[in-house]
Amino acid sequence: MTSCAEPPAPPASSSESLWRHRDFRRYLTGQTASVAGSSITQMALPVLAVLHLDATAAQVAWLAFLGQLPPALLALHAGALADSKRRQMITGDLVSAAVLATVPVAAALGTLTLTQLMIVAVVQGAASVLHDAAAISLLPSLVARSLIQRSNSRVGALFAIAATAGSHLGAALTAVLGPARALLGDVVSFLISAACTARIQAREPAPHRPKARRLREGIGEGLRYVHGDERLKTLTLVNATTSFALGLLNTLWALYLLRTIALGETAFGVVLGLGALGAAAGALTAPALARRWGPGPMMLTALAITPLTQLPLLLASPGLGWQVTIGAALFLQLACAGAAGTTQRFVRSSPRHRCRPGCRP
Predict the structure, then answer these.
(1) Contact, 112 vs 181, CB < 8 A?
(2) pTM of the model
(3) Among candidates 222, 229, 248, which has minimal Cα distance to 307?
(4) What does the pLDDT look like over 165-224, one tens digit per residue?
(5) Distance between CA 104 and CA 234 in Å, rounded?
(6) How far is CA 332 from the centre of its chain?
(7) What is the largest CA-CA distance in the chain?
(8) What is the full DSSP assignment across 42-88?
(9) In whole angstroms, what is the distance from residue 217 CA to residue 266 CA?
């Protein structure tokens, strides 16, 4: 986060097509490819750990914990470093591609271990934090301010559709190539993302702070900014709480489905694909829901529904009927997440506005 102002957004009317913005198309193409690739990894990596490397419950828990550690430790630093947003995004993509490519190479050589998967999870998690922090802050400079809400809706919807395609592609690649070589699909997606980001031509403001103490001052500035905006402070607390809860759930989720419920590799990919379809539905309906009920009530309702979607996991047993039920529950869970996430992106990327006394935000 910088102290200098963002460059003025290009003039546009609210009816202008987003697809006329060449930089936005490049941004969206790269990010969509990356999301699809990440869904391949989310599908193939648990299969690789649980079914091919015979990971124990404790090892799966450590793998999930290490994957969540970089966002917890680096989120503030990533925001402060995002002065050159495109460079930071490209660096994150290339690091992710390089470290992920070591998995199929090690598998081909017969040297792949769970320890290597844990190292990959940490490094890629750190690179993803750097990339995502820059990507969120870059979007408002690519389109006019009047198009930000619509662009966030398009981003959320296309990301969810890409995640659906990635889950099904991951299932197909896993069945044909095996889970280790299926990860090459994600490697390619990171390279596509880096290439598209490199072609974005929008100018970025040069930071005014001196290099000395820049990181510490940037973190402090970011904390003051969030603390001074009730919307961002609330979203930060909500995200921290829900991320912790979902982190506990997701730690053993794949292990439970693949072993206890006995989902096959293809069925596991289909279930993940149903969840991604729910995320697409939630992202597409988010603008209308937010206009009708307001962003706050809509996100609060989505958060209230989410715990109910976990009830089938408490009752499930092996069988097709329960597999369909779990897929439907995941569809609803990620529909809530997609609607809330799309609305959050709009709130986070919108310029801060302090109301005068008596006005409504």
Answers:
(1) no
(2) 0.69
(3) 248
(4) 887 788 888 888 888 999 999 999 999 999 999 998 866 655 555 444 455 555 565 556
(5) 41
(6) 18
(7) 68
(8) HHHHHHIIIIIS---HHHHHHHHHHHHHHHHHHHHHHHHHTTSHHHH
(9) 49
